[in-house]
């Protein structure tokens, strides 16, 4: 594939791939740091649960839903002032990380909430019967038992971020999406467009395979 | 009730679950008074919905009573704060019907969990977990995950885990209900063993009279949220008073007669009819030659319809159903003779 593209384009492609990986990795990391505690709280704060706070649960749920129902491309534009505040600019790869993170965090929160809700309530009861505090139950029971599901959830989040990262190209973020739009679309170079799409497919496949592999390794339920 | 001090005491316990949309408030337990003597195995039997699960969860504060007190080892569990309760739970072990083992921890790590929670050092955890795995017969399975263990093995891990913090009390929530009969017997034998070796007081709930018969020193029968009958297991088996108790026992002690026979049974005497008599043999007299003695003394024929000899809480126990001449005079002398030898009788009907 690289043979039929001019060397300059190949360099651009490699550079764009690196930019995409960089944006996705940082957005996924910060998104997880923010989304994980929110997800844990959402999964444990309804009435009668470990950290019962139904009102806070409800309000946080509304905020998460609002963030998730905003189309990404609109979110990118809408939070430009915030992006400037954080990144100092609203254009480029670093700036793109801000909306990516803002989109990823609530998504990851919901995924982690779902993963934790899958943990058998009997385990929570057993841990309570042992004298575990709510924090100990989260640390020693809920998170470890949900880890295979959380791994798959984060895989899904990273795959979605790869897709979103291509969209930030439209508003001046770097990466593969940017390359595809500027060369493939605006200069009408279908071979560049194709190369971008192929790289994206390979990235998504790779991430999904790694995620599936890790989740299988972590899951001890099907060993009988 | 007994001379040994009670380790668990329910005092006038009520539990009502608040109304939810669609249903009114549900009374799960009302006026429950029950003592579990030190070192005893006490069984609570009841149908599903009788309030057993609620009852056992009051002991370690997983449920709070609406009224009354639950005292464990001198501590009023109902008066404790959440953190006081966490402390108290470390001296109350619990095993569950569905084992509730962590799927991503090995047998060893599952047993270690309560010790980690209690903040015990890794070295001491090792010193405590290894002998426990030996005790429950799983030393060779220490690095296995629950998915690699059979139901019985999982429950052994559950029992070892419940014992890890060296509790004085063990709660068993239908621990054998998900197991086959053979495995059930092994797990019950293990419960007896830990009860004897570790001087552990055990409160277990079950819906199977066979479990009570096999391990419980005392039994309480729970029906509609109330204890309708309570006493030494052997006494309850020999002289059940409440209909619920009788129906639990019927499956076990030969109290049910074959259907073809029941169909012919009439409740009143007609001339020439035979009386059907149930005789319960208990304790030291269970092996006496009662029937041949009665037959010889009164010069009558006795026809055995059904007989079963069993062993309940270590004591011999037998039920024989016989038919004898039914005219009132002969019958009353037979009954007098049998009861004179220390056995209980009951006229079931006439054929």
Automatic annotation (TrEMBL), chain A:
It comes from the Bacteria. SUPFAM superfamilies: MetI-like (SSF161098). GO terms for cellular component: plasma membrane. It holds the Pfam family BPD_transp_1. It is a multi-pass membrane protein. One of its GO terms (biological process) is D-methionine transmembrane transport. The chain crosses the membrane at residues 20-43, 55-80, 149-172, 192-215. Residues 17-211 form the ABC transmembrane type-1 domain. Its main location: membrane. It is found in: Cell membrane. Keywords: Cell membrane, Membrane, Transmembrane, Transmembrane helix, Transport. InterPro entries: AA_ABC_Transporter_Permease, MetI-like, MetI-like_sf. Coiled coil: none annotated. Belongs to the binding-protein-dependent transport system permease family. CysTW subfamily. This is ABC transporter permease.
From TrEMBL, chain B:
It comes from Azorhizobium oxalatiphilum. PROSITE patterns: ABC_TRANSPORTER_1, ABC_TRANSPORTER_2. One of its GO terms (molecular function) is ATP hydrolysis activity. Belongs to the ABC transporter superfamily. This is Cell division ATP-binding protein FtsE. One of its GO terms (cellular component) is plasma membrane. Residues 8-249 form the ABC transporter domain. GO terms for biological process: amino acid transport. Part of the ABC transporter FtsEX involved in cellular division. Important for assembly or stability of the septal ring. Keywords: Amino-acid transport, ATP-binding, Cell membrane, Membrane, Nucleotide-binding, Translocase, Transport.
